[in-house]
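Sync notes, pocket subgroup
Present: LS, DG
LS reminded everyone that the earlier model was apo-only. Rerun requested with adenosine-5'-triphosphate included. Inputs:
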Amino acid sequence: MSIAPPVRLDEVVYRVGARTIIDRLDAAITAPGITALIGPNGAGKSVTLRLIDNLLLPASGTIRIGTGRAHVRRAFVFQRPAMIRASAAYNVALGLSDLGLTRRERDARVRAALARVDLLARADDPATKLSGGEQQRLALARALASAPHLLLLDEPTANLDPAATEVIEGLLREAARAGTKVLLVSHNLGQVDRLADDVLVLSEGRAVEHGPTRQVLSAPRSAEARAYIKRELPWTSYAAAF
Ligand SMILES: Nc1ncnc2c1ncn2[C@@H]1O[C@H](COP(=O)(O)OP(=O)(O)OP(=O)(O)O)[C@@H](O)[C@H]1O
């Protein structure tokens, strides 16, 4: 059981050329559990995840993860998972290389992770030959195998059928219960409603709202959040609230 690390963004700015993509973003994601990042296309959700994972560097502002006392193990599941041309099992094992495990421990973890996403039977198949949805499950297996303190996911179920989506949602709940802090980008507000403890709404590179899921989805306070959520509402149980 790990302790979910807090994630704090303070006046974060990210630019590409002259364009400001993230514009003085402030957010304090301090509660454990699952936090959803929502907002319209181009709002800056994926860039924010990459900034949190240190894959991008802000032009200014600060990002603090954890309390500074202990190393925070992170894992990222991208919207389009990148697999190397090797077996599914090898792709999962890659995520475990710097954990100091024995070969036997590593193999056991790989097998357990593959079983959790129902891909054990495909362990020896080339990862690049798996379907898009299978690769997405494999990416989650790779991420979970390292038992991360912080798990960042960008639309992890976008290509999955409903049964596979349910499996993934169950695994995310389980990880959060075990103490992993989960940050999830999703346009599926039904999923956000099912999974998230709190919701951070981004619009034009800024955080326009952050609160408990029920409150944000049923009674958003900002005009931007209201406009976005209203359009997505037919998929949720909140339609009647508007
Ligand atoms: N390297 C880059 N070069 C140019 N523009 C970029 C770059 N990275 C991101 N952007 C732009 O920044 C904006 C925010 O991108 P981001 O991918 O974070 O949006 P998003 O909220 O995740 O959107 P979506 O819901 O469509 O996935 C977009 O307009 C995107 O085109």
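DG: Helices lie at 45-52, 88-94, 103-116, 132-145, 162-177, 189-195, 213-218, 223-232.
LS: The first strand starts at residue 7 and ends at 16.
Action: DG to write up.
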